[in-house]
Automatic annotation (TrEMBL), chain A:
Domain of life (superkingdom): Bacteria
Species the sequence originates in: Deinococcus yavapaiensis KR-236
Residue intervals passing through the bilayer: 25-47, 85-111, 123-146, 158-177, 198-221, 257-278
Entry GO terms, CC: plasma membrane
Family assignment from sequence similarity: Belongs to the binding-protein-dependent transport system permease family.
Protein known as: Carbohydrate ABC transporter membrane protein 2 (CUT1 family)
Swiss-Prot/TrEMBL keywords: Cell membrane, Membrane, Transmembrane, Transmembrane helix, Transport
UniProtKB/TrEMBL annotation, chain B:
Gene3D superfamilies reported for this sequence: MetI-like
Residue stretches spanning the membrane: 12-32, 74-95, 107-129, 160-183, 203-223, 267-287
Membrane protein topology class: Multi-pass membrane protein
Record-given protein name: Carbohydrate ABC transporter membrane protein 1 (CUT1 family)
InterPro entries xrefs: MetI-like, MetI-like_sf, UgpAE/MalFG_permease
Organism of derivation: Deinococcus yavapaiensis KR-236
Keywords: Cell membrane, Membrane, Transmembrane, Transmembrane helix, Transport
Entry similarity comment: Belongs to the binding-protein-dependent transport system permease family.
GO cellular component: plasma membrane
GO terms classed as biological process: transmembrane transport
CDD domains reported in the protein's UniProt record: TM_PBP2 (cd06261)
Domain ABC transmembrane type-1: 72-285
Major location (coarse): membrane
């Protein structure tokens, strides 16, 4: 066992293969199945969103659309109120993203770089937020928003998304500051920079990659949220994309499959586009978030 | 330098805003929620102190026990599925596809980022029976298997499997990436050494790779159980807990108790049992894995 030379990983030395005994063909088939199962449903939604209403009954469900019924999208956008829901989602997700990233980066800097007594306790309190089920705070929050007239407002969503997102952002960035910012920051302070200059001119640029990664993860959480918007939004005009989609398919989508598929496509589109553009960062961010949680 | 780093105004500037918001929207409500468990009523109807009545009611509430059992059954099934399929995929990525697996990893991860509501609507259409057959029933009918055509989501038992399959499908790519990261982190020379000692194929997986992967597998399992015990979106959007209460886990029962019936005290008590359940599961797995780790 002592003899084993450590080869540079994954380059010249072929990795030992525990599955080698299995023939290659069945494995290739497995891979194909995994990819098909993961991707086909999404493609199916999109293709179905382009079908005319008679096609659903006349042709099998897997048939390709005959014409391209783009009017389904127009109907989802107007009759299905997707335009309103998009505005509501965008106007609550973007401010919440900006807030959670801004406040989270500052807090991470304060916790990891500054020296003060209660920083361990503070960091523990943020950790607790990762473990606690959201369900336990949703009732008191409802009461609170009710009392200060925040129900049915975007501000309620913004505050809730931000607070629920903070633990992950803080932990992610504390880890970053810990691993490689400390010496450089201390050197800058010795050179006479103020702590604010250090934060804005040195620390922030240094963690910008991590910030983008964690912002992506938060974007998916916020855009995909149902529980928060379902709880705090009762006015139909204030619904977000996901709670709107749920209401839409409930009352209308039973009969009108074309516009329903179009509205599902619309609800999915932002996440799919962002993911296709930045998939490596998204995967890395989600995995890192999970391991820390 | 020390003075700069100990400047309390700067500390307040950096940590204050986040702590204020976080405290108001998360920490205080946790305590508030605990307080609710000894009250009855709602903000609109007013509250009445009832001591431990809510806990007594819990013990005798058949719907609660049913929801607890459903949620536990669901969490066990889905977590097992997510981690097992994730592990199989991770082994595929690491040992069969190796470096060229980027595209496959990317595609299999796609469902992870999709909104649960949209996915649930998609599954509702996949398994629909009315007003027209969805994809599954239409395939069955075309294969001449008309006897299998059914209202998949309208029956408690088939609905259970479909929700489970949906949540496994949605998350398996995620666990595959987590476990793949763990696999890649296993030092090359450890596997090389085992191979020189004669371990191959299944034996190498079973006695070398999987034990080395155990910590991250346990982490995945905790993460998965925690997520699935809190399941809300998928069930709410797919079956709404029905038919009847056949697919109602604690989260949905808590939600309906609180917002449909306006019983905040009892709703909070249900939420607390959920939090305790999550905590117990996490502790149990930690304890088991430490024992297993110590014995090996």
């Amino acid at each position: 066992m002592q003899r084993s030379a450590s080869a540079p990983r994954g380059e010249t030395a072929p990795r030992t293969n525990p599955l080698a005994k299995l023939a290659r063909l069945p494995i290739a088939l497995l891979v194909l199945i995994a990819v098909f199962v993961s991707v086909y449903p999404v493609v199916w939604i999109f293709l179905s969103s382009l079908k005319g209403s008679t096609e659903f009954t006349a042709n099998p469900m897997w048939a390709l659309p005959q014409g391209l019924e783009w009017s389904n999208y127009a109907r989802a956008w107007t009759e299905g109120n997707m335009s309103k829901y998009f505005v509501n989602s965008v106007l609550s997700v973007l401010p919440a993203l900006a807030l959670v990233i801004g406040l989270g980066t500052m807090a991470a800097f304060g916790i990891e770089i500054m020296r003060w007594k209660l920083r361990n306790l503070t960091s523990l309190l943020f950790l607790a937020g990762i473990m606690v089920p959201i369900q336990i705070v949703i009732l008191p929050l409802f009461t609170m928003y009710f009392k200060v007239h925040l129900l049915d407002t975007r501000l309620a969503l913004i505050l809730t998304y931000t607070a629920f997102g903070l633990p992950l952002v803080v932990f992610f960035l504390v880890g970053y500051f810990k691993s490689f910012a400390r010496e450089i920051i201390e050197a800058a302070i010795v050179d006479g920079a103020s702590i604010y200059q250090v934060f804005f001119k040195i620390a922030l640029p240094m963690v910008s990659n991590a910030v983008v990664t964690v912002a992506l993860v938060q974007f998916f959480f916020m855009w995909n949220d149902l529980l928060v918007s379902l709880t705090f939004i009762q006015n139909p005009d204030m619904r977000t994309v996901q709670s709107g989609l749920l209401a839409f398919t409930g009352q209308y989508g039973q009969r009108e499959w074309g516009p329903t598929f179009a509205s599902i496509s619309l609800a999915v589109a932002p996440t799919v586009l962002v993911y296709l553009m930045l998939n490596q960062m998204v995967m890395k961010g989600m995995a890192a978030g999970a391991v820390k949680g | 330098m020390d003075r700069t780093l100990r400047d309390w105004r700067a500390i307040l500037f950096f940590v204050g805003p986040a702590m204020l918001l976080y405290g108001a929207v998360l920490l205080v409500p946790i305590l508030w929620s605990l307080g609710y468990t000894v009250f009855e009523g709602s903000p609109i109807a007013g509250f009445k102190f009832v001591g431990f009545d809510n806990y007594a009611r819990l013990a005798q509430d058949p719907t609660f026990w049913k929801a607890l059992w459903f949620g536990t059954k669901y969490a066990l099934f889905v977590s097992a599925g997510q981690v097992i399929f994730g592990l199989l995929l991770a082994l595929l990525y690491a040992f069969y596809l190796k470096r060229s697996s980027v595209l496959v990893r990317t595609l299999v991860f796609l469902p992870v980022v999709l909104p649960t509501v949209a996915i649930a609507q998609m599954f509702a259409k996949l398994f629909a029976i009315a007003p027209q057959y969805g994809l599954v029933n239409s395939v069955l009918a075309n294969l001449g298997l008309d006897s299998l055509v059914q209202a998949w989501l309208g029956q408690g038992d088939t609905a259970f499997w479909i929700i489970g399959v949906m949540d496994i499908w949605k998350a398996m790519g995620f666990y595959a990436i987590l476990l793949y990261t763990g696999l890649v982190d296993i030092p090359e020379d450890v596997i090389e050494a085992a191979r020189l000692d004669g371990a191959q194929g299944w034996a190498l997986s079973r006695f070398v790779v999987l034990p080395l992967l155990a910590p991250i597998t346990v982490a995945s399992l905790i993460f998965s159980l925690n997520g699935t015990l809190k399941v809300f979106d998928s069930i709410m959007a797919l079956t709404g807990g029905g038919p009847g209460t056949a697919t109602t886990p604690l989260t949905l029962y808590m939600y309906k108790t609180s917002f449909t019936y306006g019983e905040y005290g009892y709703g909070s008590t249900l939420a607390l049992t959920l939090a305790v359940q999550c905590l117990l599961v996490t502790l149990l797995i930690f304890w088991r894995s430490r024992r297993a780790g110590g014995g090996a």
